[in-house]
Amino acid sequence: LFVDLKLDHLANYQSLPSLCSIFSHSSLSFFYGKPKIGKSLFVTSLFYYLTMNFSPFDFDVQSSRRVLLIDFKSNKNDFLTNLKLIHAPYFQNMPPSSDFFASLIKEISPDFICDFTDVDFQKYVEAAILNSKSDIVLFDSIYLKSSSWAKFTSNWKNVNDWLVKIQNKYSVAIVFIFDHVSDLSFYQDLYYDAHNVIHISSPLSKSGEEEGVQIQFKFESVRSTPGLKGKKYCYSKPSFDDINISKWSIVNIDLEANSKPNNLEANLSNYEKVLIFIQNNPNFTREDIDKLLCRSPSLSQKIIQRIVKDGKARKINTTKKASYQFTG
After folding, report:
1. What's the CA gap between 234 and 195, in Å, rounded?
2. What's the whole-model pTM score?
């Protein structure tokens, strides 16, 4: 089942940091947290708004993206209800996004057992990517069946090999949403292979009980923007009681560096600034880095040499005016 939606793109919502940099092409990201705290609603909202070139979460959106959601839990009614909660408060008089696609596995086969190493399942996913022409593939609720989760974790190396293959073949970012990881060895694998690991929780009230009306996420690992590591964002969730006007609202952003627009960037090293720049500008020269850093050519060259040595870029032109290409 594909739910094909339509909406004209909106003007950029200017803020920090850039979602397009964090969830860039060929990146692998994991959102995880306890069950039933609103992970799916939040992450789906985040990427749905990205298809509209918009974000209410104080993130910059440099350009819109096409997103494919592959959901193993929701039926059509649940999905459309959630979609209305996400869309209606901000765009009441506009049709839904034409760049957001959903494949609801439960509607196709209620007893389907997710196996990312199964050839038929892999073909299904690849066909869905081709049909939707998506830039980002979002997998939700693969943990619902213990047998599926066991296969996913025990065969992670093979799963990751396939994910890398489709990332390179289709130039897509891969995102997973799942429950809290109790398998320590698998958790370590995530950190090693993922570009972004984000923990989602529900903040505690003064009495020590989870409020349930707020959601907080913490960047545990962010390769493209190392300065974000450890930072937390907290929002109030929209209410199903007032579905047409209830919006996400910022409760607190634990980014002291965000108190001034340029502080986050100021806290980054020159090496980190260059990494962010070349991820968005994959073909570059030393002169580009000179302008970026406003520093001497010798410093720029040292940073480029380190980036090449780290395997994140390669020289593509060996003439007097050398040029380079970002490799990830």
Report:
1. 22
2. 0.70
Q: Which residue has the tokens 């480029």?
A: 304
Does 294 or 31 have the greater pLDDT score?
A: 31
- Per-residue pLDDT averaged across 208-218, rounded? 70
Contact predicate 100/53, CB 8 Å: no
Burial zone of 6 (CB within 10 Å; 0-12 exposed, 13-18 middle, 19+ buried): exposed
**Two tokens at 272?**
């980190």
User: Distance between CA atoms of 63 and 24, rounded to whole angstroms?
Assistant: 11
Q: CB atoms < 10 A from the CB of 248, how many?
A: 21
- Decide: 135 and 171 in contact? Cβ < 8 Å: yes
pLDDT at residue 320, rounded to an integer:
66
In this structure, the number of other CB atoms found within 10 A of the CB of residue 147 comes to 10
Length of the chain: 328
Q: Which two tokens stand for residue 26?
A: 């060929």
pLDDT digits (tens, 9 = 90+) for 135-150: 999 999 876 555 677 7
CA distances from 245 to 84, 86, 218, 240 (A): 11, 10, 27, 10
